Amino acid sequence: MSETSSFFPAGFLDQMQQMLSDEAAFSEFKSFCHLPLRRSLRVNTLKISVADFLQLVASYNWQLTPIPWCAEGFWVDRPDDSLPLGSVAEHLSGLFYIQEASSMLPVSALFAHSDSPQYVMDMAAAPGSKTTQIAAAMGNQGMILANEYSASRVKVLHANLSRCGVTQAAITHFDAAVFGPALPEQFDAILLDAPCSGEGVIRKDPQALRNWSLESCQAIAVTQQQLLDSAFHALAPGGTLVYSTCTLNHIENQQVLASLLNRYPQAVEVVPLNELFTEAERVATPEGYLHVFPQVFNCEGFFVACLRKTAAVEPLPVPSYKVGKFPFTPLSGKLSREVRQLAAASGLRCPEQAELWHRDKEIWLFPQAAVPLFGRVRFSRIGLKLAETFNKGYRWQYEAVVALGDPQHTAVYHLSETQAEEWYRGRDIYPDTEVPNGEMLVIYQGQVLGLAKRVGQRIKNSYPRELVRDGRLFR
Questions:
Q1: What's the pLDDT at 62?
Q2: Is 70 a catalytic residue?
Q3: Among the options 33, 196, 246, 299, which is catalytic?
């Protein structure tokens, strides 16, 4: 048995050969599927500009090659890659997200054809690469409903949103088929990065096709059609819907889209992506979709389609599930002003477009755009947990501090590289320069890492225990 036939199921190879009728292209496809996947990252412009990021990492001798379809994206080649990219300081503080290059395409397509959307939904959001990309494109304005069906992945999603300083997301945990009936024509833009057979990820995971079969692709396509129909019903007329997968076959891509186009011929149109970026024509289909094979741009295989809803459609039956009583109530105007003033005194800039709500002793910042949805859908988490009340005032929460902390605040302490490493290891800092009394924001590379207090001759570490890192860090 040849290496190729053991690597790919025969039925998969037959499909790819039909799509790549040119023998040279088919041979190149098979060769590229055996190559290691290039690492890539996306600069998180919620925290730093691309220009400032490039200047910050210039001394590292990273070779950063721009990704043509994402202005914030770069392929990265590091001369010494023994340290995981996720352990460098800039990743720990949320200045970039490790994201495969082709997975940046869907959000680029969504915002190339959406006009300042207020309500955006990411229907399959974990681990958060596309949600954080959406948040950056929106500048933390409006609202993102980030849904994740897998309970085990919701925590990872929240952690990544927190690390990247996303403030306007509301997380739900549902089968996304519920949103069409529950929130009809609510969203200006929707991304459905659908669950799929994963044919495009074999460079990252050689075992991705171990359980592949034509029958499984057809079964997955049924689920994809249900999700796409739900997304279309949740989309407002005039809104933009991007459907994407990391798979390559027509069953889960073109045929799924054809099912929607055939059902609603008077209410949907394809938005061609032929000119989304330079050389997009190389991977454009006759319909105007992007069908990215690994060998074309040396990345993962991916499929992206963009649709526009041109008219309202008959709503789906309203689901019978119970949302339950919403457990939060808004703070009074007086108390809200007090909390904002005290937060500002500690260096936290609460967005004006966010509202303060509370539950027991917890105080949360909710995006204003989320409020009309309260009672219509059950949320796992909304916005940011700002503080917990106790008998002497408020205890500001880590996720709010790193998202809202002002590096220009008067009470700050700038960490050295060694001290910053100690901070991420959960150890107290023993300063060698003057330290403010009381609370202070600790800063490294211009980024807020947390809120701490001086205790005697040390700065007491408040980094959350569950985030503490061991092993090699930084450079």
A1: 95
A2: no
A3: 246
